[in-house]
Prior knowledge:
Elements: E1 16-23, E2 26-33, H1 57-63, E3 70-80, H2 87-100, E4 106-115, E5 122-124, E6 128-129, E7 143-153, E8 159-166, E9 172-180, E10 187-195, E11 205-208, H3 223-234, E12 250-251, E13 280-281, H4 314-340, H5 350-358, H6 368-374, H7 380-387, H8 411-420, E14 428-429, H9 441-444, H10 453-456, H11 465-470, E15 474-478, H12 480-491, E16 500-507, E17 513-521, E18 532-535, H13 541-573, H14 576-585, H15 591-596, H16 603-614, H17 620-624, H18 631-641, H19 650-656, E19 660-662, E20 670-672, H20 678-701, H21 705-710, H22 712-723, H23 741-763, H24 766-770, H25 792-797, H26 799-806, H27 810-823, H28 846-869
Antiparallel strand pairs: 1-2, 3-7, 3-9, 4-5, 4-6, 4-8, 8-11, 9-10, 12-13, 14-15, 15-16, 16-17, 17-18, 19-20
GO molecular function, one term: linoleate 13S-lipoxygenase activity
Pathway: Lipid metabolism; oxylipin biosynthesis
GO biological process, one term: lipid oxidation
Amino acid sequence: MGSGLIERSTFLGSSKVHTFYQKTNQLFWVNSVSQKRRVGLRRKAVGVKPVVAAISENLVRAVVPEKAVKYKVRGVVTVRNKNKEDLTETLFKHFDAFTDKIGRNVVLELVSTEIDPKNKAPKKSNQAVLKDWSEKSNLKTERVNYITEFTVDSNFGNPGAITVTNKHQKEFFLESITIEGFASGPVHFPCNSWVQSSKDHPAKRIFFSNQPYLPSETPSGLRALREQELKDLRGDGQGVRKLSDRVYDFDVYNDLGNPDRGIDLTRPTLGGQKIPYPRRCRTGRLPTDTDMHAESRLEKPLPMYVPRDEQFEESKMNSFSNGRLKGTLHNLLPSIKANISADNHNFKGFSDIDSLYSEGLFLKLGLEDDLLKKLPLPKVVGKIQQSSQGDLLKYNTPKILSKDRFAWLRDDEFGRQAIAGVNPVTIERLEVFPPVSKLDPQIYGPQESALKEEHILGHLNGMTVQQALDENKLYIVDYHDIYLPFIDRINALDGRKSYATRTVFFLSPLGTLKPVAIELSLPLAGPTSRSKRVVTPPVDATTSWIWQLAKAHVCSNDAGVHQLVNHWLRTHATMEPFILAAHRQLSAMHPIFKLLDPHMRYTLEINGLARQSLICADGVIEACFTPGRYGMEMSAAAYKDFWRFDLEGLPADLIRRGMAVPDPSQPHGLKLLIKDYPYASDGLMIWSAIKNWVQTNVTRYYPDSAQVCNDKELQAWYAESINVGHPELRHEAWWPTLATPDDLTSILTTIIWLASAQHAALNFGQYPYGGYVPNRPPLMRRLIPEEGDPEYKIFMADPQKYFLLSLPSLLQATKYMAVVDALSTHAPDEEYIGERNHSSIWTGDAEMVEGFFGFSAEIGRVEKEIEKRNSDPTLRNRCGAGVLPYELLAPSSEPGVTCRGVPNSVSI
C-alpha cells in the first residue's frame, strides 16, 4: 500500500470505495472501484497481482507526509460453536461472557510481513479485542462472527500473521479470520484450531495468512514467527502430554500390552532393532509398575492423547460414539444370550446367521425390552432406537447378500473377490510353478510346495501348466510365508486353528478367475507329519464340503493379512511418521503442508483409538482374528520383510506383483494383465488425477532441482520421516531420494494415494463383504479333518454342522460384525477426495486454487467413468446377475455404510 492511507472494506454496501489522503489541513479524495479477485475454472490469467487503489506511487509520495498516519482496519473472527455443551462448559461460557466485559477477553495483534527499520522487529498493530463476545455468547448458531478493529500505521505493509491470546477460562475453536481495509484486498487467515486459555498455555497463538511461502522466500517480518511456531509444535520430548497440548513427537509401540494385569496381557515393544516398526505419536505416559519399558495403559472411556487439533471434531465424535454404543450393544446382548444357554455359543444353522439381520437377537426370546430397561446404558440408546425405527439390535444386511444370498458359495465369486473385494492387493501373477518358499528350510522345512502339475492340469482349458504360465493365466494368493512362522503358536490358542495357505487361480477366457487348487500347510513337526495338503475343486459331496472348508481357511488367512498388514500397517501405521514430521518440520505457510493438510486429518486420533481398543492386548483384533495375540508381531514381520515405500504407489505395486507390465503406450504407463481388475483399473484413474494435481503444485514452487535441495523444511520433513519415523529401515537402499521435482512428485503422490484411495479400497467394504461371516470368516476354530482323524466321523455325519462349528462363535461373530460395521461407516463431516474446507481461500495462490478446482473436476470425471464401467456387461467382475458393482473407489458417498466413497484421509 506504499505509504498512503488506504481504507477499503467489503462491509460497505457500495462498489465504490472512498480512499482519502490527508496532508496537514488538505484533504484529497480518490475514488477507486473495489474489485474482488474471482478465482475459478473460468479464470484464464494466473499469477496476476491483486488489484490496488488506482493511485500512482509518485502521487502518494507527493501528498503524504513522511510521518506515518494511523488508521483502522476491521477483522471478522469466525468461531465455531459446539452443538452440545455439558454443564461445566455452559458455566464457563457464562463466566467468560461476564469477565469479557471487565477485560479478560480475546486479544489479537496483527504482524506485518515487513521489519521496522528502527527496532529491527516485525511491524505490529495495536492489541485489539473481540468487541462483541459477551453480546453474542448465547447465540446457538454453528458459527459466530465476532468483530475486531486494529489500528495500524500507513506504512504497516501487508499483514502476514496474527497472534491470539485467549484470556477466557474456556478454549474455543477458531475457524478463520478475515482482515479488511488493506489496499491488497481482504487478507484471509484459515486457522481451524483450538485456542486454549492463557492460564493453560500462556504463549500467544500464531496464525499465518493463507499466502504460501517457501522457507527461503519468507518475508523478513515472519521468519522468527515461522521458526517459533515449529519449535512450539516439536516440544522438548519430555513429560506427560496434556490433552490441550499441541506437541507432535515420536515413540515406539510400547503401550499395546497391560502387564500390570497379568503376564497374559504382556506384549512386546514394536519399534527397535529387535522388532522393527514405524513410530507412533508420543503421549509420555508413565511406565507400568511391572515393566519400566512399557507405557501404562489408558482404558476407555479416558481419551488417548493426540495433539489438540488432531482430535475428532464434534460431528465426527458424535457419529463415532453412536457407532461405538451400537457396537457395545451388539456385543453385550449376545454375551447375555450366550450365558442364558450353553447351546447358544454356536450357530446351529445358517438361519441363525440370517436372523441377525431379519429378526434381531432377542426378539425370539422376548427379552429385548426388559433387558434394555435393566441395563445401565445411556439415555442416548432410546434416541438411537427411535432414529433407527427400533432396529438397534439388528444388523444391517451386508451388501454381499443384496443381490444373491448364495453368491459366497460360488467359486467365481471367491475368485472375483480376490480382485474386486475388500482385499484386492495381495493377488500376484504366478511366475514359477510350483511356488517356492523364501523361509529358512533349517527352521521351517523344505521350501518346495506340495502343489503338483496333476493338481491343476485338468482345470486349465486344455493348456499345459507351462503354457498357462507363459500366457499369464495363472495367479496366486500366497499366505504361506507370512503365516507359517506363527502357525504353531496360533493353533495353541484356545479356539483357533489355522493353516498357511496358497491359492492358485486360472484366468478364464471371460476374464474371471477360477480357483483351481488350495495348499494348506502346517509346520513340519516330525518325519511322518502331514504338514502339507492340497485340496482341489470338488467332484462329489464329500470333497465339496472339504473344498468349502478350505476356501473358508483361505478367507480367514486373507482377513488377518488384510486387517493387520494391508490395512493397518500399510495405510495407518506407516503414514503416521510422515504426518508427525510434517507438523514438526513444515510450516503452515509451506505450500507442501497446504497440499498435504487435508490428507492428514484425523489420522493420529484414529490411530490412537486403535492402540486403545483395536490392536492392543485383548482388543478387538486379537479377539476376532485368527492370529490372536500374535497379530501385531505378524504385522511387524511384514513390515520388516515385505514393506517398501518405493513400491507402495499403485503402478509400482501392480508391477511388483506381476499384475501389470510397463508399457509407455498405455495411458498410465503400464498394461494390466487382467483387463477387468476393478481395483487396479479404477485406482489408476485416481492415481493419475492425484499425480497431476501434485505435479501442478510441485511445478509451481519448484522449477528446478536446486529449489528442492535447498528447501530446508522440505528436506527436514523427509529426513525425519525416514530417520526418526522409520529408523530401523532408514539405511535401506530402496528409499527414494528427494533431489528433483520428479522425486517430490512421486513421494507426495504415493502418500496422498495411500491416505485416500488405498485406504478407502481396503476399509469401506469390510462390513459389506465381511458382515456375513461365512463369506469372510475372520477366524476358524477347526482344522479340516482327514480320514482317520477323530473328527472325521463328525464331519461325515453332519458336514454343515461341522462347517458352522469351524466358523466363529456367536459372540465372536457378532463382536466382529459390530466392529467392521463401525469401521465401514462414513461420518457426516467426511471430506472426500476433490473436496476441501474453504476451497477458495485455503491458499492465497490463485493458481493453486484454480488447479484444485481442475483436480476436483477430474475426480468428477473418474466417478462418471466408474459408473459407466459398472454397467458394462463385458466386465464380468463388476457387472452381471448377482454380481456386486465395484464402487469402493467411487469418490463420493453419503454418510453411513455405503461400500463406496474415497475420503481425503485415513479417518476411520
